[in-house]
Design brief:
By secondary structure, the protein is an all-alpha fold. It contains eight helices and no strands. Helix 3 packs antiparallel against helix 4 and helix 4 packs antiparallel against helix 5.
């Protein structure tokens, strides 16, 4: 009986590749992302309330600026999660924008004059790398749907694909 069960059952690696397992895992992942969105939205509401409280006298300009920039970072992170839910990909452009705003927020809050010159130099280098990433991202197509990158890059792949088509 045990032998017949093994013959009729599907191997474990094919079972993991079945569409029902993948759909269940994607559904669970969507639930996690949705719960992150709800939590982030709630945290943004709390931060917005605290920002309005910080606008009451005595006015601390650096705290208000830090709160506003922090809210912008949270909004961008929320947008990143929404893009992931819609398109099933992480937007490189939005992630780089969040990084740039985060670095600039820290510089503004800490103060450029109080920051050691070596840290300013490293921060400028990091911002330059992020800017290059953002420019490169603008040159790439928004998605890779309909573009066969392996075919464009590898002549061997192109040869293999045509030989398989000729056999069929």
């Amino acid at each position: 009986m045990h032998k017949s069960f093994n013959n009729s059952s599907i191997p474990w690696y094919k079972w993991l590749n079945s569409s029902s397992v993948i759909q269940i895992l994607e559904f669970i992942q969507d639930l996690i992302i949705i719960s992150l969105c709800i939590g982030l939205f709630s945290f943004m509401a709390i931060q917005l309330r605290e920002m309005f409280v910080s606008l009451l006298p005595p006015l601390d300009f650096t705290r208000v600026t830090a709160d506003i920039l922090f809210l912008l970072i949270l909004v961008e992170l929320f947008r990143l999660l929404i893009i992931y839910l819609q398109e099933r990909r992480v937007s490189i452009g939005v992630a780089v924008e969040v990084s740039i705003v985060s670095v600039l927020r820290e510089i503004i809050v800490k103060g450029i004059l109080e920051t050691p010159w070596s840290q300013v130099l490293v921060t400028c280098s990091f911002l330059l790398v992020l800017a290059v990433l953002l420019v490169v991202r603008c040159w790439l197509p928004p998605t890779f749907e309909g573009i066969d990158l392996e075919q464009q890059v590898s002549p061997w792949y192109k040869h293999q694909k045509t030989s398989v088509n000729k056999k069929n």
